Predict the structure.
Amino acid sequence: MSRRAAVLLPYAVFLILAAVSWNRWIEPFVDTGRELMVPWRVSRGEALYRDVRFYYGPLAPWLGAAVDSVAGRRFAARIALAALVAILHLEALRRLARRLTTETLASLAASLAVAVAFFLRPGGCHLFPYSLDTSLAVAAATGAVLLATSGGSSRRDRAAAACLLAALLARPEIGLAGLGAITLERVLASDAAAKRRLGWLVALPVLAAAIVYALASAGTPAATLAKEGWLAVLFVPTEFRNVYASFAGVDRPALRLAELGLVLFALLAVGIWLVLAAIAAARLRRRSEAGARAPQVAAVAILAVAALVALRPPAAVRETVDLLPPLVRAVPPLLFAAAIAGAALRLRDRSRNSFVAGVPDSVLLLALLFAARLLLAAGYVGPYDGFYLPLPIVVAVAMLFRVAARVPAQIDVSPRPTAFPGLVAASLAVFLAARIGALALAYRDPAWSRVATPAGSLFVIEPLAGATRDALANLSRRVPPNGSIVGFPEAGFFNWVLGRTNPLAQDQFFPGHLDRAGEQEAITRLSRMPPDAVVLVNVRTAGHGRAAFGKDYLEELDGYVRSRFRPAAEFGPGAGSSPRIGDPGFFIQILVPAGRPAP
């Protein structure tokens, strides 16, 4: 592969998947309302944290507010901002991969990261992320370790410091993770000049971030910042910890470990298959080069057939195929195993320059921190996977290539099975094609349906699409242009696309978002500034430990709403007599003030 082709391949994969999934990235009723509304409210003069509750750093809302101020409420403008962050992230991954392996193999590693993680749904798509803050912070931290390990110059360190500042201002815990990884690498390294630069490399981003957070927090009570602001990272509610445990798989360790064992068995079987093919190729090469290619082509072809069966399994084997967990599940545990082994070797042999040969310590440490968020459940589709998986994938694939290159010399056969590394690369190329095919099937399912809004069109899966269209039409007639809408547990999508305000400080009402005092404050605001409509959307939150708004949490707030507002319209298959959030069928219910006549 030429150098130009190697550089372009990850971007080609990105463009193919962007085209395949076009305008199918937005999940209207899970996190999207927050992502849309918080920046818009800031652009209209409301103060972040004081007037608008937000759990992360200020960078993403400020950038989104700038976009809304310039371009107005347009999905295209927000998508362009997210795409810019995604491309910067991809370029950082590609350059890091190039530092870890050859140009061609680095291109394959970066392409795999894109195909596996950049277009996940729900919530994990880089073109409309569940959290632009997370997308920004992960991209910036990845860029920081790339720059800090790229030759050790003051200019690169200044650029790394800027990346660390961006990460700190987006998600402080991710910024600190990147800063810690770079610090540990510099402390353990023998480069005296790099150690001298470490002081300002660490101090400047932290000092600048502290000043920005102080300015952004001015006028907001410390209690609010701790409960519903950026300081919540230090006081994580139990419900949030339940979500983190669920996405890491540690809530059900026995099941996840059993699944991991199945994945490792499948990967071992593939590895043995490729070794046997390489041995056969080596022996047939004595007769002719063409004969040596036959077992290699056959081995890869059989893997391709297996991938096709997994994509479209026959009815007779569908249930069996569905039992196989995602193969990427093995990435986090294997990274940790390699790091532990490398640390033991480094303690024994102090001349080693890094924990794992060929992988800078800061890159490995940041990959481990990201992998820990997905430890036993990587690959199950979730919002975290899309942002924390790419760097671990790139590092793991680069390490795999290094191991594969050593295998022929370790096998006691003659002649040596030198085709094995090439077969490993070919098998990963098959996996890459299979991932593209799987996403194409998911995003081109007939269930997708177009939803037109004043802010642009999007595609949503039925029956959500039909209910969303009907609710939009009803709200646009019912709520005047200067009116307001409140939604539970989240309906900011309607506020933003219709340009209607929200009188509450919150745009989300999921478990852990409001304590008793916060619930009372919301009720007081509703009584003082009653909205023109209340929207109830049947979204469950089982991962938080409490699933249904009004049944399992915030019961008093739900009771107040139902006592002061009457049902006016219902849409979706779950609509019926007094639907409640948590019922089986999806629905959107619109309520209006009890004493207000119908429009």
